[in-house]
Amino acid sequence: MKMKFATMAVTAMMAAAPAMADLVFPSLSYRTGPYAAGGIPFADGYADYFTLLNERDGGIGGVPTRLLECETGYNTAKGVECYESTKGEGALVYQPLSTGITYQLIPKVTADGIPLHTMGYGRTSAANGEVFSNVFNYPSNYWDGASGAINYLLESNGGDISGKKIALVYHNSAYGKEPIRTLEELQKKHGYELTLLPVDHPGQEQKSQWLQIRRERPDFVVMWGWGVMNQVAIQEASNIRFPMENFIGVWWSGAEHDVLPAGDKANGYKAVTFHNVGRDFPVFDDIQKYVVDTGKAAGAGDQIGNVLYNRGMYAAMLAAEAAKTAQEMHGTAEITPAMMRDGMEALVIDEAKMTALGMPNFGPSFNVSCENHGGPGLVGMTQWDAANQTWSMISDFKETDGEVIGALVAEDSASYAAENNIEAGCK
Amino acid sequence: MFYREAGDFKTNYADDNQTFPIKFDRYRYYALMLFAFIVVPFLINDYWVNAIFLPFLIYSIAAIGLNILVGYCGQVSLGTGGFMAVGAYACYKLMTSFPEISIFIHVLLAGGVTALVGVLFGLPSLRIKGFYLAVATLAAQFFLVWLFNRVPWFYNYSASGQISAPERTVFGVAVTGPNTSAWATYLFCLVLLTIVGLIARNLTRGMQGRKWMAIRDMDIAAEIIGVNPLKAKLSAFAVSSFFIGVAGALYFSVYLGAVEVGEAFGINQSFLVLFMIIIGGLGSIFGSFAGAAFLVLMPVLLKNVLVGGLGWPTDIAAHLEFLIVGALIIVFLIAEPHGLAQLWRVAKEKLRLWPFPH
C-alpha cells in the first residue's frame, strides 16, 4: 500500500513536470509610488512584447512565454521579496529597473545561477563579465551615458569645452552617483569645471539647486534624474530661463511625461539614448494587430510608442533573442536559467536581425562576449519638440570614451572581486 | 477552566516572580520556543525566510528597542531610521575592517556604537519634552542619513555610495553574503531576538523598568521619589538605541545585503517602527512582536491573496494594499486604542474566567 502510494506520488510528479514548461520572464515592475511614471510604460512595453510573441509566434521557439509581474514600488525590501517569490518558478532573467534592487540582486543571482540584465542602469562595472558572471548591462551603461553627453558637448562646441562650467543635477542615491567618477575623470581630460548638485529622494524640492544654477550660470546642465524629479527639474529650469538646448538628461530623464508638464518651455531639451524613439517601426503594427486590437495590452494600453515603452519593448526583445540563442546553442526549446545565461553571453544583435523583427535601426548592433557584458556602449542623442510633442534622434549612435570607461570598469570590478573573493576569469 | 492560577502553588519568590506565572502560559511559551528553534529551521525555504521571517524578526528587535524608549520611558523618538543606519554602517565598517572576527560580535558592537550615538542625541531630552523632543530626534534622523550620504569614509569610498555585506560566518556557517542558507540566517536573527527579548523583558519588570515608567507617568513626581531623570532617560536612550542598532545591523547585513542609506533608513523607516509599537501596544514587549508581525505580514499576505490568489493586476493590488492596511490600522486603533497587546490582555482575562464569567 505504501509502495503503491509512493509510486503514485512519483508518477504524479513526473506527469506534473512538463506542465511547467513555459519560459518564465519575471517583471519586477513598479506601477505605484513616486517613480511609477517611469515604471508603467517600461513594464507595459516589456509585457506587450512577450504577449506579441505568444500571440504571433506561439512563444519563443514554440514554447509559450509567461510573464510574472511583481510590484516593487522601487523599494529594495519589496524587490527582494519579489525576487524570492518568483525565482522558484524557473525565472530566466531578472530586469528590476532599479539600481538599488540591482545592487541587492547581484550577489543573489550569482549564487542562484540566474542571469540579471540591467540595461542602462545598475552597477556599471558589471560590464566586466569575468568578475560578474551572471550580470549583463548591454548595450550601454551609465558611464557611456556620461561620456556620450560630454562627447556631444565637445562635438557641438568645436571639440573644446575647456573652461566651460558643467553642473550635474543628480538623484542623491546609488543611481545618481554613478556618473560622478566618469565625469571627474573626463574633467581631467577635457578641462571643464564640474559642479555637483544632489537632489534628495523623491526630488520634488529643487529650489535651492536651481537657485545655485541661476547664480553660478553653468554653461551646461547634465541631469541624472528619475521619476517625479525630472519634471520638477525641467520646470525649474524653465522658471530660471535656463536655455533648454544646453540641458541634457540621461536616458532615464528623457521621456514624454518628463517634459510635457513644462509645456512649450521644455522645447529643445535633450536626452542621451541607446535605442530609437517614436513608433515608426513595423513592430508596432504587429503590436496593434495582435496585442492592442485583441484587448491584451498591458496596463491601460495608452503608453505605446513612448520612449520608456520602447525601452521596455527593447529589453524584452533582447531577452527573447537571448532565449532564442540559448535554445539554438543547447538544442532544446525548454531552457533553464543557466542556459539563458549562456545565450545572453553569446548574443549577437545586428541590423538584419532587427529588421527581421520589425525594428530596423532601433538600437545599435553589438556582440556580447564573456569579457564584455556591457556591449559597445554606443550612445545617441534625442531632442524634444514641444510643438509636435515628439522626441527625435538628432545624433546617431556613436562611440563613447572607451579608454576612460574601460579603466574605471577594470578598477571597480577588481575591487568588487577582491571584496567578495571572486576569481576573475572566463569559464 | 484551564487558564488560571488556582492550584498552581509557588513555594519561593523566584517562582512567584517569573515572567509567565500561569502554567498554561509558560508551557505555551516553551512550546513556541521549541517550535521556533527546532521545527521551523527544517521547514523554511528562501522565500519564507527572506519575505517573512527575517523582516519580522528584525523589525521585532527594532520595535522592542523603540518601545523601551517610547512605551516605557515616554520619550517620543522619530530617529529610529537614523539609529538603524548607525547600526548598519557601524556593522559594515567593522565587518570590512576586521573580517576574521565573528559577525555575531560585530552586530553586538554595532549595537554598542549606536547606543553611544543614541545617548548623544538623547541629551536634549533632559531639557525638552513631548513633541519638541520628537522634533529633536527628527533632526537626528535627517542628520545621520545626511552624514552617511555625505562622508565617503562610511561607505569605504565606493563609487555608488552603497554598502554591501561581504560573506561573514558564525561558527563557520555563512550568515551574510549571497551563499547563505535559509536556516542559518533565520537562526542567527532568532537567537539575537531571543536575547534581546529576554533582556528587555527582565529590564522592564525590574527596578530599571520601574524607573523608566515613573519618568513616563510623571517625571516631577519620579524625581521627588528619588529617580534620577538624567540616568533614567539616558539609560533608556542607550538601551533602546542598542537594540535598534542591532536591528539596523541585521537589516543591512543579513536581510538586505546591500543598502543605500536614504532609501533603506529614511524617515519612512522611523514611522514604520513607530506605527508598529503604536498598533502593537505601547509599553508591552508582546505588543512589539504583534505590531511587527502585523505590519510585516499583512502586506505580504494581502499581496499573495490579491495577486497570487485572485490574479488581480499588480498596481490595483498594491493600491488596495495601502487602503486595506490603512483601514485596518484605523479600525484597530478605534476598537482598541492600546493596541494589539491590550486585546491580548483582555482575551487572557476572559480566558481566566471562562466558562463562568460572573
TrEMBL record, chain A:
Residues 28-353 form the Leucine-binding protein domain. It holds the Pfam family Peripla_BP_6. Keywords: Signal. Coiled coil: none annotated. Residues 1-21 form the signal peptide. The keyword Signal applies. This is Leucine-binding protein domain-containing protein.
TrEMBL record, chain B:
InterPro entries: ABC_transp_permease (IPR001851), LivM-like (IPR043428). Pfam families: BPD_transp_2. The chain crosses the membrane at residues 27-44, 50-69, 76-95, 101-123, 130-148, 183-200, 236-259, 271-296, 316-335. It comes from the Bacteria. GO terms for cellular component: plasma membrane. Keywords: Cell membrane, Membrane, Transmembrane, Transmembrane helix. It is found in: Cell membrane. GO terms for molecular function: branched-chain amino acid transmembrane transporter activity. It is a multi-pass membrane protein. This is Leucine/isoleucine/valine transporter permease subunit. It comes from Shimia marina.
